[in-house]
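CO-FOLDING WORKSHEET

Operator: S.A.
Ligand of interest: nicotinamide-adenine-dinucleotide
Run index: 451
Mode: holo prediction, single chain
Checklist:
[x] sequence pasted
[x] SMILES validated
[ ] output reviewed
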Amino acid sequence: MKKNYFSRREFLGIGAAAAGASLAAKTILLAPEPLFASALPVSPSDRLRFGIIGIGMQGNWLLSSAIELPGVECVKACDLYDGRHTLAREITDKPNLPVTRRYEELLADKDIDCLIAAVPDHWHKQIVVDAVSAGKDIYCEKPMSHTAAEGVEMSDAQKRTGRIIQIGSQRVSSLICKKAKEMVDQGMLGDLMLVEGWLGRNDPTGAWEYPPPFDLSPENLDWDKWQGTVPKRPFNPEIFARWRCWKEYGTGVAGDLLVHLVSGMMFVLGWNEAPRRAMAMGGILRWKDGRNMPDVHASLFQYGDIPVYMRLNLGTEMPETYRFQGSKGMLEMTEFGLSYTPQTGKDSSPSYYDGSFPHAMREAYEKKWHEENNPKLGQEPMPETVTFKGPDYDDVKPHLWAFFEAVRSRKPVVEDAVFGHHAALACHMANESYFRQQAVHWDAASKTIKS
Ligand SMILES: NC(=O)c1ccc[n+]([C@@H]2O[C@H](COP(=O)([O-])OP(=O)(O)OC[C@H]3O[C@@H](n4cnc5c(N)ncnc54)[C@H](O)[C@@H]3O)[C@@H](O)[C@H]2O)c1
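OUTPUT RECEIVED:
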């Protein structure tokens, strides 16, 4: 009597002819793009002079990266904390680099061609709107906005002024995302069924418990201005360093981390819209340090007809991963690699439902199945899993480069204020749903998030 349990091959869901090929995955190393190869040598008069606003944790990285690009130069730095004036001079190796606490001075400076802003989320809107209104192009960090209404104002300002705004979710300039997009555009996923993504951390730094600079004081920091329009609190170094923990200044794990997943997903799939609906759950489960933003946040979105399920967790480390699930296979994407596993969408063995057939019927059914479905001589085996590994590349420099190239060419960037607004809306909807404990939707007519 024939066994009616699965062989390992059957369990893995692969046909006999395909077994060898499918089990042996192929790995291809993605070559880094010759990023600046196309750029012509830049004459000193064509050099782009940029100013930077905010030289904190991200700003110091952007500044160090930007000054390594050809044809660009930092000519002024602004921060409300004087310690970061020193830092900007150290990074640029310009002991006399002009520095200021007032970003307004950079907007008025005719010698500045464009700006980079890496300030806390509650300052993005004002600085971007002021910059483009003053005729400056600006690279502003993610998430674009602190609220949905701010995002509307910022995309309107882009339209009104025609200036270049690029938002800083650098996934859209990553080699991995580009390869994934190419594969999706070629139809390798078939019909898209579902997207999932996750990211987890499990340490105090990952949970934003950063050490404040130990000389910080109201003398070397304009604390009043730092707080912007948020109701004023007494000087508090922890808020200065750990502002992500509070909704008054930050946008939680949604704006800090989910926005990267959403921006990368939008780029790979060629989407540029807000989710239709969102439902989120979570809580402050691990870091009970006085924060008011959740440290675990699971969100389910609907984009068109496609469910998108994203999980952020500051209590368990999990490398950033996406899974794009389609009728022709699955694309798994991490920060450093990409794996595509094709699926035929067909049975690879006689249906196990035949276990419910009497012996003779089962034998007849299986015989017929094999006659009709066994691979024929010369038939193509099922394509194998392909893995692309990223080189030791950096996506911040290509993203900055995309901005500087746009400033020069006046050609639009991928991650402009409309894209940035749509990506940020997913985060705001996830936060609104969490706080309201209700599903929410984006009401395009009133441009508001409604329950
Ligand atoms: N793209 C990424 O991967 C990435 C990574 C980290 C942070 N970020 C984003 O970068 C932004 C900054 O984050 P951070 O961690 O560097 O914050 P941070 O607190 O370390 O630095 C912000 C700096 O901005 C200064 N500042 C605040 N308001 C200002 C104002 N009105 N004028 C001038 N200076 C002002 C502060 O004094 C501070 O030095 C945030 O929006 C964050 O989400 C992006």
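REVIEW:
Residues 1-24 have pLDDT under 50 and may be disordered.
The pocket of nicotinamide-adenine-dinucleotide is lined by residues 53-54, 56-59, 78-81, 84, 103, 118-121, 123, 141-142, 168, 170, 225-226, 256 (CB under 6 Å).
[x] output reviewed
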